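#dry-run=false #mode=assembly
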Amino acid sequence: MNYGRELLKGNTDSLLLCLISRQPTYGYQIVKELVKRSNGYFQFKEGTLYPALHRLERERLIEGKWQILANGQQRRYYYITDNGRQVLATRLATWQDFSSAVMAVIQPETV
Amino acid sequence: MTANASHYLNRFKAYLRIDQTIRDDAAQELYAHLQDKTQELEETGLSREEASKIAVQSLGSPELIAQQIYETHAQGSWKEAFFSALPHFLVASLFASYYYWHNVISLSIILGLTVGTAIYGWHRGKPIWLFPWLGYYLMPVVVTGILLLSLPQGWGWIAALIYIPLALFVLVHIVRQTARRDWLYASLMLAPMPVIFGWFLSSGAGNEFLANDMWMARLQAKAPWIVISFIALAGATIGFIRLKSRTHKILSLLTPPVVILLSVTLASRASIDAWGWLILLFSLFAFAIPVWMQARAYQ
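#status=ok
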């Protein structure tokens, strides 16, 4: 089992909600943002993003809307919902508590 | 669109057997992704074909994405599961009391409810809960088949020449309409058919049906088992709606009707005549073929 992959899998929803909460965005931009902000740490098959977006939309945490660009290309932009913001706030708080607790345990004791 | 992208999206769409609107949206979204990625790679100096090939590879397996999207949308809510199982519960409740299934009013209420719900659902975009109701809506086809058996010797063949093509036409038309959305919904719709045929035919030869009170008495004696079999059908329907995996859905849907039909026919094979076996085989075929076709298409 790849520990890093499992961690990413467990936190995909929070990462996506976090990015979408900053500004309405679309699939390809999300992939790029994830790679950029993580300094290339998050590498995955790009298509696996879409089932996660569908799941979040079905849970009404985000909402997708088609937009037509000036060049005629269509893109599906995702917007966070009120429910999504609440869920994100709860998850971030839990994550911060968890991460602080882990750091407190693993950091070397100072004499 | 390049050949690579086109091939990729065709594979994706072929594997994703869900509501056409969702499927087209998902494919369009992947296409937009491929366009963006290809354009970006082209700007680095790659040829269009090379860029498209890398873009497709970076998306990953279309079958895996389709499967994961399917599992996201395939799980119905508890409310949908309840409404889908409701017609089976109604039939079970009908046989739970001798009074109810001999009472014209209770029979008329259930019949009216079934017809009304089926028509309502058909014109409201065919939601998933519609299909089991639609199965009971096809009951006239079943009843005609049973009445056919009650005709005097010789007439059955003549009636069969009219009935079988007509029944096939009606069934094929409705199954095709249903299968446009998903082949499995056709089986969900036809699931009650082998069970109903099995129970009716196991209670005696067809030509005893209308004239002989013994037929009704035999059916009455089996009423508790009939109730159990329709509750099992309701359970299978709830499982079908709530399960995410397509394989589990197929197993959930296929197992109860086949087990019930086999048990009923093996227990009463002596009382089923040639016509009865023909109709049983026909109903099993009609029920199982959509599942088989779907499994084949999915592989």
